[in-house]
Amino acid sequence: MSPLLHAHGLRKSFGPTPALRGVDVQLKAGEVLAVIGPSGSGKSTLLHCLAGILTPDAGEVTYDGSRLDLMPDKRRAQLRRTEFGFVFQFGQLVPELPVLENVALPLLLGGHKRRAAVDTAWRWLTRLGLDPVAYGLPGELSGGQAQRAAIARALVAGPRLVFADEPTGALDSVAADTVMELLVDVAKAARAGVIVVTHEARVAAYADRCITVRDGRVAYPAAVPARGT
Ligand code: ADP
Ligand code: ADP
């Protein structure tokens, strides 16, 4: 079976500074890949190239048989909305909207009817233990709750690929474990691929496979750390 996502020879510079110097990545449907490495090594740049947010200077990104790097911006943006989900370090929920509305938003933007969107959002909030705070505002949530809401929002529209950039960076280790368990469980259940950028071994321990980025290159195929380290 051909991979869901396949990147080859990715290079990207910001001015004279090379951030990526020839990176290859593959991801199968339902697979969780951790990208680890020190700060400034190029992890976020790689994630943004794989998600079609940045265009690489050289190399290819093939998603589901199509060249993402060659697609017109409009088509790429549409793909990001309909087939990709995103989780960032700080949930980036819309602060003025209740949690329920935040989670329903991708469905509403995707043209679903309000009733169906709210019903689906409720199911996700219940599944992630957030139904008691559904009508609260994001500012009233704990860090862990906000990240669980961000996961619900990233997965509500049924993406095939989820990109997570330091999803637990602002959490204590107990909340981080809960968030990673939920992210991996719900993604596996939906057979979505997940790429998680992290500098924490305990987060990488949830992945099926792990690569280390150092100075813009994949340094070596790293072993997945044992849980609880
Ligand atoms: P992290 O290393 O945790 O991903 P950074 O603080 O390095 O976060 O970067 C945060 C954001 O700023 C990213 O979107 C990154 O692309 C951008 N960024 C990083 N370094 C620079 C820079 N030298 N100039 C402009 N933007 C940058
Ligand atoms: P990481 O995610 O591993 O911390 P990044 O991908 O954010 O690393 O950054 C890799 C390198 O590229 C760093 O030297 C960073 O300063 C630089 N960089 C990232 N984004 C930008 C940007 N938008 N403008 C200029 N430099 C950037």
From TrEMBL:
InterPro entries: AAA+_ATPase, ABC_transporter-like_ATP-bd, ABC_transporter-like_CS, ABC_transpr_LolD-like, MacB-like_ATP-bd, P-loop_NTPase. Residues 5-226 form the ABC transporter domain. Keywords: ATP-binding, Nucleotide-binding, Transport. GO terms for molecular function: ATP binding; ATP hydrolysis activity; transmembrane transporter activity. It comes from the Bacteria. This is ABC transporter ATP-binding protein. One of its GO terms (cellular component) is plasma membrane. SUPFAM superfamilies: P-loop containing nucleoside triphosphate hydrolases. Transmembrane segments: none annotated. PROSITE patterns: ABC_TRANSPORTER_1, ABC_TRANSPORTER_2.
